[in-house]
Amino acid sequence: MSNSPVKIVYCTPALYMAGGVERVLTLKANYMADVLGYDITIILTEGKDKPLFYPLSDKIKVINLDVDFEVLWTCSFVKKIFVYLQKQRIFKKRLTEELIRLKPDITVSLLRREINFINDIQDGSRKIGELHVNRANYRNFEAGDTNIVKRLFAKYWMHNLVSHLKRLDRFVVLTEEDKSSWTELSNVEVIPDPLAFDIDQVSPLTNKRVIAVGRYVYQKGFDLLLHAWKLIEQQHPDWELAIYGMGERMPYEQLIDKLKIDRNRCHLNGSTPDIKAEYLNSSLFVFSSRFEGFGMVLIEAMACGLPVVSFDCPCGPKDIVRHKEDGLLVPSGRPDLLAEALHQVMGNDSIRQKMATEAINNAKRFQLDGIAMRWKQLFEDVLS
Question: Fewer CB within 10 A of the terminal residue: the chain, N end or C end?
Answer without folding.
Answer: C
